[in-house]
Design goal:
Chain lengths: ~250, ~375
């Protein structure tokens, strides 16, 4: 398994955000983590990428502990080097150009100078920004920024790609482009952990999904298999509402 | 893990690149201080009376020596435009005036001063001052006066007549090689420090903006240690701050002819000021929730520091230390800049203020890092 989460617990001020969550993601697999607002998705993602320490449990990436009691020094940084993180926020440098943004992250990930030009070309082509490399990010559209946000996560060719709602607020064309890119990566062997509120995206991309609420796993499996047990439900969204209820969330 | 030094340099380079591409930040750091230096020098020309210190004289001698001190020493052409003199009846009344900041310095001429000087025995003249500039000037005048009076006494004892030249022969109001503190020399560092803090406010603004847009999270998820990331960014901010202060100092010296003092001590003092203000900016970055809040907070602190340290005080009030002066780093810096520019003092003379500034900066960084992890993250 490229990603393994075991019995994760996290509480904030006595309120449990993640409560005994376990799941795995294999190479070449896309795993959708679904849940309503406040279900514990973002907390889980932050523990997976090593930003947040779990109270209990452990996360390993590419066999190295990234969070938990055994996550230390070299193991942790090797685990972080094996993952690409695409946060929900547009974590970009707006006054710099597209390629300057890539250059900065290439330095941080230790990509050798001789390889950088080729990598920049590869990821820009992958996200459809090859003609906009010199454009200042502040002049780019929302969709272009989303695609650059993804390109940065791909730059160091990670074994695991973690995406937190990567298509929020973009047009259908950019969404389609992002999903095409992700399908290509998955088919090439990259493990993908994906969260989104768009159920159709998850159905189209993910081999397996985990539905969580109140920090606990409610259901897990391939979307088609989950629906097999509930012939009264027509799609993943129906299952999701059935599992998590129709009450409005904060 | 990426080499910490490489990480540090990458972050420092990134900060510098972002600063260069933020025209308002560049203008605040480099152009506005030069413009202000020009305005200060033009408005407060070299020939203008630049400083007035208030002297109170308690003449307990009531003899010829006391009269000579007031008329000839304090009335000497070299100092008469710099000082206002008033006679006070008692030590107690003079002390009250000094404590109330009505006067800058008190000179007490003791009883029997005329007789003591005439007997070649010398005399102790007390000087009390509220600030170093007034104190130094008063001591110079008193010392010159005493030496000259004793010379007269010796001449009378030997020849039966005073020297041909009237005493005091000369009162040098400047230290060897030094220059009087003028308004431009006071306002130059004041202006520089004001724009320094505003400049560092832009760095704090970038910190907060990065935190809000998820860049800090992305950095935390990268295979780099937190310390080099923070150090790289802080070093770049301090470098930009130092560049701003150096620009003010150099433009004052080369464009407007107002030296801040010897290069070595000035560079050290600027470095200490930048570190102190960097600590303040770190606290601003840690406390602010939005970039706008960070910039407003930095601007507000810059004004408070300027007011509390007397940066905006008119030239005549330079000797008067505001009540909260000791609490703000800019006051200590201004004291040191005054020593460097008026007396061409060396590093030894400003170790105290430099120590205070470094302590202030260190406290700021520690406070920002350990009381609010948002700054370090």
């Amino acid at each position: 398994m490229v990603l393994s989460c075991r019995n994760l617990h996290k509480a904030f001020g006595g309120r449990s955000a993640v409560d005994g969550l376990s799941f795995d993601v294999a190479a070449g697999e896309a795993y959708g983590l679904l849940g309503p607002n406040g279900a514990g998705k973002s907390t889980t993602i932050r523990m997976v990428v090593g930003i947040l320490e779990p109270d209990r449990g452990q996360v390993t990436v590419a066999g190295r502990p990234i969070s938990g009691p055994q996550a230390r020094g070299r193991d942790r940084s090797e685990a972080q080097a094996a993952l690409g993180y695409v946060p929900q926020d547009l974590a970009l440098l707006p006054t710099l150009s597209v390629v300057d943004n890539l250059r900065f992250w290439a330095k941080l990930y230790g990509i050798p100078r001789r390889l950088r030009r080729e990598r920049f070309d590869d990821v820009l082509v992958a996200v459809g920004l090859e003609d906009r490399a010199r454009e200042r990010v502040e002049n780019c559209s929302g969709g272009m920024r989303r695609r650059l946000n993804l390109a940065i996560g791909l730059l160091h060719q990670p074994r695991l790609l973690v995406l937190d709602e990567p298509t929020v607020g973009v047009d259908a064309q950019s969404r389609a482009s992002v999903l095409d890119t992700l399908r290509g990566l998955r088919d090439a062997g990259t493990a993908i952990l994906y969260t989104s509120h768009y159920m159709d995206e998850v159905e189209r991309l993910c081999d397996r999904v985990g539905v969580i609420d109140h920090g606990q796993m409610l259901a897990e499996g391939p979307p088609s298999e989950l629906l097999l047990d509930r012939p009264d439900l027509v799609d993943l969204e129906g299952l999701f509402l059935e599992l998590t209820g129709r009450d409005l969330r904060d | 893990m990426t080499d910490p030094l490489r990480t540090c340099l990458a972050l420092a380079g990134l900060e510098l690149k972002r600063w260069v591409r933020q025209p308002i930040a560049v203008a605040t750091a480099l152009l506005l201080p030069v413009a202000m230096a020009g305005l200060v020098s033009a408005a407060l020309g070299r020939a203008a009376p630049e400083l007035t210190l208030k002297f109170a004289v308690v003449d307990l001698d009531a003899g010829p020596a006391g009269v000579a001190f007031v008329d000839q020493a304090l009335g000497h052409p070299a100092v008469k435009d710099l000082i206002d003199v008033r006679q006070v009846d008692s030590r107690h009344a003079a002390r009250a005036l000094l404590d109330d900041d009505v006067v800058d310095v008190v000179v007490v001429l003791p009883p029997r001063l005329s007789e003591d000087l005439a007997s070649v025995g010398g005399a102790d003249i007390d000087v009390w001052a509220s600030n170093p500039i007034a104190g130094d000037l008063a001591h110079m005048i008193v010392d010159q006066y005493g030496i000259r009076a004793q010379a007269s006494a010796v001449a009378i004892a030997r020849t039966g007549a005073p020297p041909d030249t009237p005493w005091p022969l000369e009162v040098d109001v400047t230290a060897p090689g030094g220059q009087p503190l003028d308004a431009a020399r006071h306002y130059g560092p004041s202006t520089g420090m004001f724009f320094l803090l505003v400049t560092l406010g832009f760095a704090a603004q970038r910190f907060v903006a990065d935190r809000r847009r998820g860049l800090a999270d992305r950095l935390a998820a990268a295979p780099v240690a937190a310390a080099p990331v923070l150090v790289g960014r802080v070093l770049a901010a301090l470098l930009i701050g130092g560049l701003s202060m150096a620009t003010t100092a150099l433009s004052m010296q080369f464009l407007f002819g107002r030296s801040w003092g010897a290069a070595g001590p000035v560079v050290l003092l600027i470095a200490a000021v930048v570190i102190a203000m960097g600590g303040v900016a770190a606290v601003v970055a840690a406390l602010s929730r939005t970039p706008e809040q960070a910039q407003m907070l930095a601007m507000g602190i810059a004004f408070v520091f300027a007011l509390a340290s007397g940066s905006f005080s008119p030239p005549g009030a330079i000797g008067t230390r505001p009540a909260l002066a000791d609490l703000v780093p800019t006051s200590h810096a201004l004291d040191a800049f005054a020593l460097l520019s008026t007396e061409h003092a060396g590093i030894a003379a400003i170790t105290g203020p430099i120590g205070v500034l470094l302590a202030f900066g260190l406290a700021g960084f520690v406070l920002a890092t350990f009381t609010n992890r948002r700054f370090a993250s």
